[in-house]
Amino acid sequence: CPDNAVIKLGPGKRFAFNYDYCKGCGMCVAECPCGAIKMEAEEI
Known about the structure:
The structure is a single chain. By secondary structure, the protein is of the alpha+beta class. It has one domain. The chain has one helix at about 25-30; strands at about 5-10, 15. Strands 1-2 form a two-stranded antiparallel sheet. The radius of gyration is 11 Å and the shape is globular. The model has no long low-confidence stretch (mean pLDDT about 90).
């Protein structure tokens, strides 16, 4: 993530998201090798 919104929790562990840094660019969705991330529209 170019904005450091995705944080690796350690070797062999999962990832966490810091939504305060997320700008909604979708780079994490495109780069996730497992397809485990998806973007959902946010209600305003």
